Amino acid sequence: MVPILSSIIVGLHPKPSPLKSFLLSATYVLFMAATYSIAGLIAGLSGANVQIALQHPVVIGTIAGLFILFAAAMFGWLNLQMPQVVQNKINAIGNNQLGGHYLGVALMGTLSALVVGPCVAAPLAGALLFIAQTGDATTGGMALFIMGLGMGVPLLLVGTSASQWIPKTGPWMHRIKVGFGFLMLLMAVWMNDRVWPEASLTLLAIISLVMALVLALHHRWQPPLKSLLAAVIAYTLALFIGLYGIALIVGQLAGTGTLMQPIGNLGTTLTASESAVSAQKLKIVKVLPQAIEPLLVQAKLNNQPVMLEFYADWCISCKELDAFVFTDKKVQLALATFKVIKVDVTLNSPAAKQLMQTLSLVGPPALVFYSSSGQLHEETIIGVPSVDDLISVLRQVQKL
Fold first, then answer.
1. Least crowded by CB within 10 Å, which of 45, 138, 309, 380?
2. pLDDT on residue 167
């Protein structure tokens, strides 16, 4: 949410004052927090998670399209503003700034809460489960609103200071806006990765290489950079961004790359034995919710503990879990005796909703454990755990 809010403020002309930047940031945070509260109440009282329901390819594509429009505006290719008729009416009542800027910021705050960050973290899950189990909508709703305000504190700091990052009118103003334009393109790719990860790798590689080329050719900017330090920074950024783009291409050709790990496990697979042994021990079964029961029965007959990983293609935290936790050799060793089942809840089907409700889950990512005797372990992990925390729970399950 940081690049969304800061780019909105940076894109304003004329340069906003610190007070206006704070008011815009506060508007964004308040509407984000209010949306979390309302969506949480709906999820807690009815069991219908509005945020998960909005992770549809059409919705994601629309939001990605908005980011592309924002990028085009930053590049100066088009001018995004309200229709002239609407502007005239707003001017007539002396409320142009409120209608032209604050409404847009409020809308982006709402969309950010519903679409940009739907993955479930432990505090959010706790608040939603409290509402569901107690029916206390007032306390639960306030808890979610306060949580949203807490999330918004860094946004207030960034948004308020964003206007101070903007230099006085001149070449730097245009360059900073172009930089945020590229940031908006990256946000569009990040959203697209939820529903079309294969294309996102190619798109990000292209954008990275273009950014590197633009920075490397800074001597052709008009006017060119005069400071030696600025030139060094431009060349350094060009080098690292260009290397990242090349790594994405190499990883994609090898079939092992992701956005967070551009070459994936390419380096380790080339060195062989230990990784191969770990991969053989860690057998992962990917199923839909309705196919879980037979696998649990079979694992109980085999006297084998089970870990259910609830994930969705649009869940960014689920990808962090796969990229940074399950690739750890200590985790793979601890899971060697487990039957690991990835439960696909991408479509948010009735079966998925029913299963998550039965297990008191709000949404992905979530890890549920069964002992070798088929007993459900009392501790469920919500969000992305540390390696040590996950191993600790796995050892507890093995002792049951």
1. 138
2. 56
| pLDDT value of position 48 | 64
From residue 2, give the alpha-carbon distance in Å to each of 142, 252, 399: 24, 29, 44
Distance of alpha carbon 142 from alpha carbon 41, whole angstroms: 10
Q: Does 156 have pLDDT greater than 90? A: no
Give the Å distances, CA to CA, from 75 to 21, 68, 69: 22, 10, 10
Give pLDDT, residue 240.
93
Nearest to 128 by CA among 218, 50, 217: 50
Strand duo 306-311 + 284-287: pairing? unpaired
CA–CA gap between residue 75 and residue 217 (Å, rounded): 17
Strand partners, 341: 285, 308
Mean pLDDT (the chain, rounded): 79
pLDDT recorded at residue 39: 78
Residue 79 CA to residue 11 CA, distance in Å, equals: 11
β-bridge partners, 369: 307
Those residues whose C-beta lies under 8 Å from the C-beta of residue 265, and which sit 6 or more positions away, are 256, 275, 327
Q: Which two tokens stand for residue 304?
A: 């084998």
**Which is it for the CA torsion 57, 58, 63, 68, positive or negative?**
positive
